[in-house]
Design goal:
With about 220 residues, the protein is an alpha/beta fold. The chain contains ten helices and six strands, in the order H-H-E-H-E-H-H-E-H-E-E-H-E-H-H-H. Strands 3-2-1-5-4-6 form a six-stranded parallel sheet, with helices on both faces. Helix 2 packs antiparallel against helix 9 and helix 3 packs parallel to helix 8.
């Protein structure tokens, strides 16, 4: 459970405007839709996807760092990693296992499978969108494990989009569709309070000293 007393205490150290901004943004956050980024080589691509997650209200992103190590550039993410929860995995199997355990369907994004075009995709259950490497796309493991495939329709000579562009298009479309359906896409009240506390802590420069004083009084 969230320490409501601690949250109230810490919110005195931030402006009323910032507190209200947190509350407003959290009303638009969702965990119903999430993304998983598999072994993307270019730092700027992973970071740009995290930025898109933040912009479109995706609270959690999953990054598989099997072959190329850490793939998040804080300069390109421009602070988005402060507001989006980034889960890291050493391999694809552990990521898929975790997401299935959380009740997500695994959807592979690919330009080479016409099983479902974007405008026809129904987001009626918790969904994890998987994005693959720049040249090779998603691994065979993801393609075999996927519950479905999703494609952005294109009419030009180019066969595929940059991963960060694809993510932005899909997230904008699907979050808009999700909210228009009126389904239970929002964070729970407990989750909202938890993020308010987390974000408030991140907004206070001398948080360690302030927490020390707070717990010293208890």
């Amino acid at each position: 459970m969230v320490d409501q007393q601690l949250l109230t205490y810490l919110e005195d150290f931030i402006s009323i405007e910032r507190k209200e901004r947190f509350i407003k943004i959290l009303e638009e956050r969702t965990k119903f839709l999430t993304v998983a980024i598999e072994d993307v080589f270019q730092l700027h691509n992973t970071s740009a996807v995290i930025r898109s997650c933040e912009v479109f209200g995706i609270q959690t992103a999953h990054v598989i760092e099997d072959r190329f190590g850490e793939r998040l550039d804080k300069n390109i993410a421009m602070g988005a990693q402060q507001w989006v929860d980034v889960a890291r995995y050493e391999n694809t199997r552990s990521c898929i296992s975790h997401l299935r355990g959380e009740g997500y369907q695994i959807i592979a994004t690919t330009p080479y499978n016409d099983s479902c075009l974007l405008e026809d995709f129904e987001i009626d259950k918790k969904t994890a969108l998987f994005f693959g490497t720049e040249k090779e796309g998603l691994s065979e493991e993801v393609m075999q494990e996927a519950d479905g495939f999703l494609k952005i329709p294109m009419v030009g000579f180019t066969e595929s989009l940059n991963i960060s562009v694809s993510a932005a298009i899909l997230l904008q479309h699907l979050t808009s569709k999700l909210k228009s359906q009126g389904s239970q896409w929002q964070l729970s009240e407990v989750e909202k309070l938890d993020k308010r506390l987390d974000w408030t802590k991140k907004s206070i420069k001398s948080i360690d000293d302030i927490l020390g004083r707070y717990y010293g009084k208890i």
